[in-house]
């Protein structure tokens, strides 16, 4: 029986992964949650994992609620548990260390946490390769690219074309300075955690995905582009050197890329991209009619996308600073401490001030800490 461990089990990806585990009858051997006591207890009672990690603030209460379970306060113990695939779905840079630990222990990782790839890039691949561990993407766009690349040579690829829904503010309101957190938290097509939903509205999510694709597929940034696909049906496309294009289409339902990512992680590790089994799945067939429109991105309206490209071009630790500044900016926006248009301005300022440095585990940590402190200093008082 397939054994999975989930990092971020109480979140949007985590709960949908559990739904896929119910479909497929997988054994859930380990769960890592944060502070959602009620939900992690409920999940533990249903799936009976061998180990659960939680935030230290709810450690005692979780132990009292689950007296016969092994409860720890260290997600790395979940990341390195005996399983076939670890699902990396702790958001932000906090997801990097358990991802690194899982790969270092030779675990295959189905990766939802884009920030790990954006910030850890080359270092993540070094660890995976040294330990014969597979990384399969869970983000719908990267899953789409993966599916288009099955059986192809990356050297035959001319362009990776990521699609974006355009978020809630694709066309309106004309004046984005009026946007409130409540407005930005309403995504037209996807139900996701708060951080990724706000990032979707600014297109920073797409920017992070561009960087994720750059590092994940070890593919030149200049040959990655973005198109708006309002229906969220075409999840991404690959243009080959002969100018033929492959696209992957699917319903905007994360359970599909989650399932594909885990199934492809289970394939023998002979090539980086190997495809996966396609079992019957209890979802309605897709409605293609009227849903396939494509448009160019309005770069002026969404400056965060350009900032992500700029950070990728700078290389080194610049993506780490971009990511940290975005986390602080989004949090401040959600707490009504920064206006919506202030998000891009804050990130731009941090990028301009970021000292150049080679990417190492130490420079990731120090740049992240510096960028967070500096971004907080720059917040309106
Ligand atoms: N949601 C999507 O559709 C989607 C799509 C593509 C990619 N992603 C990526 O997947 C990742 C997860 O997104 P999400 O939407 O599922 O986020 P989410 O709904 O906010 O859930 C986050 C999960 O991680 C846990 N967590 C947070 N900080 C933690 C920490 N420091 N240590 C241990 N656990 C921690 C949370 O625990 P508690 O809730 O218990 O505190 C929760 O289980 C992100 O990197 C996101 O960019 C998400």
Verbal overview:
With 381 residues, the chain is an alpha/beta fold. It folds into 2 domains: 3-138 and 252-265, Rossmann fold; 144-245 and 295-378, Orthogonal Bundle (Rna Polymerase Sigma Factor, Chain: A). Helix content is 44%, strand content 14%. A hairpin with a 4-residue loop joins β10 (234-240) and β11 (245-249). α12 (303-314) runs parallel beside α14. The N and C termini lie far apart (55 Å). Bound molecules: NADP nicotinamide-adenine-dinucleotide phosphate. NADP nicotinamide-adenine-dinucleotide phosphate (NAP) is lined by residues 8-14, 32-36, 75, 89-91, 94-95, 112-115, 139, 190, 192-193, 196, 254.
What is the fold's blueprint, element by element?
Layout: E1 3-7, H1 12-24, E2 27-32, H2 37-47, E3 51-53, H3 59-65, E4 70-72, H4 75-79, E5 85-88, H5 96-104, E6 108-111, H6 114-130, E7 135-137, H7 140-149, E8 157-164, H8 181-184, H9 194-202, H10 204-216, E9 224-228, E10 234-240, E11 245-249, H11 255-265, H12 303-314, H13 318-334, H14 342-353, H15 361-378
Parallel strand pairs: 1-2, 1-5, 2-3, 3-4, 5-6, 6-7, 8-9
Antiparallel strand pairs: 8-10, 10-11
Helix pairs in contact: 5-6, 6-10, 10-12, 12-13, 12-14, 13-14, 13-15
The structure holds NADP nicotinamide-adenine-dinucleotide phosphate (NAP).
NADP nicotinamide-adenine-dinucleotide phosphate binds near residues 75 and 114.
